[in-house]
Amino acid sequence: MLVGIAGIALCAVGFAANRAHFFRAYLLAFMFWIGIALGSLALSMVHHLSGGAWGVVIRRVLEAASRTLPFMAILFLPIVFGMHELYLWTDADAVARDVILQRKAPYLNVPFFLVRAALYFVLWSTLAFLLSKWSLEQERSGMGGQALKMQRLSGAGLVIYAVTILFMSVDWVMSLDPHWYSTMFGILFMGGQGLSALAFSIAVVVLLSRAEPMSRVIAPAHLHDLGKLMLAFVMLWAYFSFSQFLIIWSANLPEEIPWYLKRMGGGWQWVGLALIFGHFMLPFVLLLSSDVKKNGRTLIGVAIAVIVMRMVDLFWNIGPMHHEETFGVSWLDAVTPIALGGVWVALFLWQLQSRPLLPLGEPYLAEALEHGRHAH
C-alpha cells in the first residue's frame, strides 16, 4: 500500500504534466490488474466445474483475487473522468464529422457506456461474492451441498464471464480506435486473463510454500500440474493471437489491416517480436521440461516472466491506438502500473489473510494432498 500511495503521488505529477498520457497509462495499468482478478474468477469457476488437485491448492488465492473486483469498480472512476481524453467517440464534433461514428453512436455513447460498465461490475462482483460466501459456508458446515451450488453457479457464471469480457474488451480497449474491429479481440482477452491469473497464482503459491504451513502442503506434483496448465494457456494465447493476425491479414480489408500496419513499423515491430519470443517461444520451451515445472524456483521465474510479458502485450495493444505511430515509453507507463499494483496487491493480501490458505471444507482436499505426496 505504501508503494501504491507513493506511486499515486507521482501519477498526480504526471496528470498535471500530461493528462492524455496519464489516462492512457492508467487504462493500461487498470486492464492489467483487473485482468488478474477476472482471470482468477474464471479459473475458480473452471475448477468448481472440473475439479482436480491443481485448483484445490490455489483456490484461496483465486478467491482472494476475485474479491478485489468491487474495489476495482472504484479504481475505474479515473477512466470515467478521462473518457474524453481516451475515446474519440465521446467528442460530439468528431462524431458530427464522421459517418462511421454516427452509425456506431447508438452503442458508443457515454450514458450507455457507463450503464454497461456498471452492469459488468455488478455481475462480476456478485459471482465472486457468492462463490466466496458458499466456499466459506462449506468450510464452516462441512456439508457437500455447497459444492453442488458452486458448480451450478460456475456453469452459468462462465457464460456470463465470456459475454461480459467480449463486450468489455470492445468498450474499454477496442473503441480507443472506433473505426477498427476484430471478432477475435474478446477471446484474446479471455486467454490473456486466464494466463495472467494462473501465472500470478503460481508465483503466490510458490512464495507461500517457502514457509509453514504451506511448505508441508505444496509438493512438486502440484507445481507440475500448475506448470502444465500454464503451458496450455501460453499455447492458447499464441493460438488466439495468430488466429486474429491470420484472419485479418488474409482478408486484407482496409477497415482491419491498419491495426497491424501501425504495429509493424515505427519501433512497435520490436515489441511484437519481443512478444513472439518472450510471451510464447521462451515460456513454451521452458515449460516443456518436467524439471522446470516441478522446481518452485524455476517455475516462479517463468511465471514472473509471463506476468511481465502480459503487461507488454497490453502495452502493444493499447499504445498504438492513441495514434502514436512511433514507439516510445514514458515514465508514466512504468509508474502507473506499479502504483495501481501496490494498491491492488495490498487489497489482495488483505483478502487472502482473512481465511485459511486451504479450503478445509473441500471434499477433495485429502485427495489433493495425497496426490502431492505420492505422485511421481
What features would you describe in this structure?
The chain is mainly alpha-helical and 376 residues long. The protein has one domain (2-374). The chain has helices spanning 2-17, 19-50, 53-66, 69-75, 77-81, 83-86, 92-97, 99-104, 110-141, 145-172, 185-208, 220-251, 258-262, 268-287, 290-294, 296-318, 331-352, 365-374. α1 (2-17) runs antiparallel to α17 (331-352) and α2 (19-50) crosses α16 (296-318).
Record the SSE blueprint.
Layout: H1 2-17, H2 19-50, H3 53-66, H4 69-75, H5 77-81, H6 83-86, H7 92-97, H8 99-104, H9 110-141, H10 145-172, H11 185-208, H12 220-251, H13 258-262, H14 268-287, H15 290-294, H16 296-318, H17 331-352, H18 365-374
- Shape, per Cα inertia axes: globular
Helices and strands, in order, run as HHHHHHHHHHHHHHHHHH
Structural class: mainly alpha
> Could you estimate the helical fraction of the residues in percent?
over 70%
Summary keywords:
single chain, 376 residues, mainly alpha, 0% strand, globular
Short summary:
The protein is mostly helical and 376 residues long. It has helices spanning 2-17, 19-50, 53-66, 69-75, 77-81, 83-86, 92-97, 99-104, 110-141, 145-172, 185-208, 220-251, 258-262, 268-287, 290-294, 296-318, 331-352, 365-374.
